[in-house]
């Protein structure tokens, strides 16, 4: 059964969507506030999120932006009619689709099915992340270099996964710390430097390759050769 999180402060709309989705066999969770919605979205794995843009606490675009630092859960934005800027900002922030209010429930259901289908085919395609001899298998939580297994801690694994997923994009330390330690982490971002050092010892030094590159004053990047 697919699980869907609805983050929507208008109770009547949220209740209406919940009833329809439950009727279609989805398991539904609701939040009315942006901040709580983000916490819920991060603390459990939903198959899809319906996210209103105008929310108390934290607006939908900001919720999405913060969610995307850690998770790729499909998100359909619920935007007000003609709010073109919301749509552009939403897609820029990583929304998969949007539906304009007021919408017909059949349209919403169709968008949900499409997003879920797309996500499951994408998931199958991206469970392996590769760069040269380095292969990270997300499903098996396993890293190999030239076919030899490398044992990593969870933090090291998450850091490597984030860099591989964002190949060729320079990631600054705060983005990396969010991905590795959670968005509510408070403390030194140079903790990332420590994890990078561990990864270099376990991968670069051992296999004589140069995987993670330092971008001085910014952060780190893994580039395709
Ligand atoms: Ca609203």
What layout of secondary structure does this protein have?
Blueprint: E1 3-7, H1 11-23, E2 27-31, H2 34-43, E3 48-52, H3 60-68, E4 75-79, H4 84-92, E5 97-100, H5 105-125, E6 128-131, E7 134-137, E8 142-145, E9 148-150, H6 154-165, E10 171-172, H7 173-181, H8 191-207, E11 212-215, E12 219-222
Parallel strand pairs: 1-2, 1-3, 3-4, 4-5
Antiparallel strand pairs: 6-7, 7-8, 8-9, 10-12, 11-12
Helix pairs in contact: 2-3, 6-7, 6-8
Structure description:
By secondary structure, the chain is of the alpha/beta class. The protein has helices spanning about 10-25, 35-45, 60-70, 85-90, 105-125, 155-165, 175-180, 190-205, and strands at about 5, 25-30, 50, 75-80, 95-100, 130, 135, 140-145, 150, 170, 210-215, 220. The chain has a 5-stranded parallel β-sheet, with helices on both faces. Strands 6-7-8-9 form a 4-stranded antiparallel β-sheet, with helices on one face. Strands 10-12-11 form a 3-stranded antiparallel β-sheet. The protein is built from 8 helices and 12 strands. It is elongated, with a radius of gyration of 19 Å. Helix 2 packs parallel to helix 3 (about 60-70), helix 6 (about 155-165) packs across helix 7 (about 175-180) and helix 6 (about 155-165) crosses helix 8 (about 190-205). Strand 8 (about 140-145) and strand 9 form a beta hairpin. The longest helix is centred in the middle third of the chain and has 21 residues, at about 105-125.
